[in-house]
Amino acid sequence: MSTEPDLNQALFERAQKVIPGGVNSPVRAFRAVGGTPRFITRGDGAYIFDANGRRYIDYIGSWGPMILGHGHPAVLEAVQKAAVEGFSFGAPTEREVELAEAILALVPSMEQVRLVSSGTEATMSAIRLARGATGRSKFIKFEGCYHGHTDALLVKAGSGLATFGNPTSAGVPPEVAQHTIVLEYNNLTQLEEAFALHGKALACVMIEPIAGNMNFVRASVPFIKRLRELCTEYGALFVFDEVMTGFRVALGGAQAHYARLIPGFKPDMSVFGKVIGGGMPLAAFGASRAIMSHLAPLGSVYQAGTLSGNPVATACGLATLREIAKPGFFEALSTKTRTLTDGLKTVARENGVPFSTDSEGGMFGFFLMDQLPQNYTTVMTTDKERFNRFFHGMLDRGVYLAPALYEAGFVSAAHSSADLDATLDAARQALR
Ligand code: PMP
User: Fold this and answer.
1) Predicted confidence (pLDDT) per residue in 92-124, tens digit
2) How far apart are CA 139 and CA 8, in angstroms?
3) What's the 320 CA to ligand 1 centre distance in angstroms?
4) Which pLDDT value is given to residue 159?
5) Which of 213, 253, 289, 366 is an S-S bond match for 111, by CB 3.0 to 4.6 Å?
6) Strand ranges, E, within 111-216
7) pLDDT tier at 161 (50, 70, 90 boundaries)?
8) Structural domain includes residue 77
């Protein structure tokens, strides 16, 4: 046993005195998996380093944004240059226009975007805009999808389709939750029933098209197709929350993926975050010009932000988008991700461990069960203790996976084949 002091533990104890739970976002506290959270001192390419100087292969990538790995030279240069020019002006800049143009060029379903500072802000604003544009209050979301911590989105299913949702957090009044209808993901029957009951009162339906907040669960093609038809028929806006999938599962996001499978498919509104900021606080929501013109200062839906379109964040986002738009980027990233997931599956099979896995672009999930789940209830039947042992087994061997079984994983362009091999070696030992 090492006799050196554990600096992560020391920092965690210090942190808990001044920050609730010692963290600024709950999942970082390792509550689900137990043990001491690692305090990260720096990142370099595919690696992060903790307070003890220990190196980890990073499959969280700040929960998605770090698609190029840490400290990519072109991004670093853009950020350093922007920082010297000024941190924030609270006035328009050319870089915001450039970033908006770059995003729109890659996402043809949108004609305009508004930049904000977090995914939560973006989904909250999208819901307000959908309500303002349609003059309706209710909306549908799906169990297991996370859209940030806006009151009306922190809601779980009520006792039936005719009743409305229940808050999942203290501090959310039931009146706020009463307009939120929560349905089971991939359940066509519930969807039909909900539209029959509430269709004409719905402002929108918001979905994670490939859900990364219940590990990795795809919306089935028939489900997306039927949702599109129902939204059109009832005049509800179809909102793709691509905070996680945007510029991550494909250059044009999950909507590009579904457009390949459903000819002509597009959502009415989209929300982005994570990759578009390249690790800086930046997110966006966008739609047709007609919908976006309801926003202030043009229209009556109010939305604003002191740091919105921040010059350093937009520089970081733009430099990141430039790199991932290079030819072959997503093919290479997808191949890496698949090498990892195929390898994990083989290792699990060698050890007689039930295992299923799926990925798209640089986003992946795995389940310690034989078949890929289709909804949240099935995801939560995962053997939690076994997952936690696997997580710690990997962490002890220098591989940093998401510290909860309901989170997706992320591969970056900086992960080398040696990193992938080292990960599979660690998995072989951990699963044994
Ligand atoms: N939507 C989705 C799909 C997300 O995954 C997240 C964050 N994980 C959010 C919204 C909220 O984003 P943020 O944490 O930046 O507020």
Assistant:
1) 999 999 999 999 999 999 999 999 999 999 999
2) 43
3) 19
4) 78
5) 289
6) 112-116, 138-142, 155-156, 166-167, 180-183, 202-207, 210-211
7) confident
8) no
Closest residue by Cα to atom 1, ligand 1, is: 147
Please indicate, yes or no, if residue 2 is contained in any of the structural domains.
no
Kindly report, residue by residue over 259-286, the tens digit of the pLDDT. 999 999 999 999 999 999 999 999 999 9
Residues with Cβ within 8 Å of residue 234, at least 6 apart in sequence: 195, 199, 200, 202
Give CA–CA dist 199/204, Å, rounded.
9
Active-site residue, from 59, 146, 185, 376: 146
CA-wise closest residue to 279 among 49, 76, 40? 76
* H or E element in which residue 177 lies: helix 174-177
CA-wise closest residue to 185 among 317, 379, 15: 379
Query: Which residues touch 362 (CB under 8 Å, ≥6 apart)?
Result: 67, 248, 249, 330, 333, 334, 336, 337, 410, 411, 412, 413
Check: pTM over 0.95? Answer yes or no: yes
The catalytic residue among 241, 266, 406, 419 is 241
* Ligand 1 atom at shortest distance from the alpha carbon of 211: 3
Question: Hey, which of 145, 244, 285 would you mutate to test ligand 1's pocket, going by the most ligand atoms within 8 Å of its Cβ?
Answer: 244
**Residue at 251 is within a domain:** yes
> What pLDDT is recorded for position 2?
59
Strands 283-287 and 356-360: unpaired
Alpha carbon separation from 383 to 186, 253, 379, 403, 407 (Å, rounded): 22, 31, 10, 14, 15
Which pLDDT score, from 0 to 100, does residue 156 have? 92
Q: Is residue 283 part of a domain?
A: yes
Identify the domain boundary among 290, 324, 358: 324
Collapsed DSSP state (helix, strand, coil) of residue 378: helix
Examine the domain organization and report whether 196 and 320 are in the same domain. yes
Q: Quote the ligand 1 centre to 270 CA distance (angstroms).
A: 13
Total structural domains in the chain? 2
Alpha carbons 429 and 209: distance in angstroms, whole number: 34
Q: Which residue has the tokens 């590009």?
A: 256
The yes/no answer to whether this complex scores an ipTM above 0.95 is: yes
pLDDT of residue 4: 82
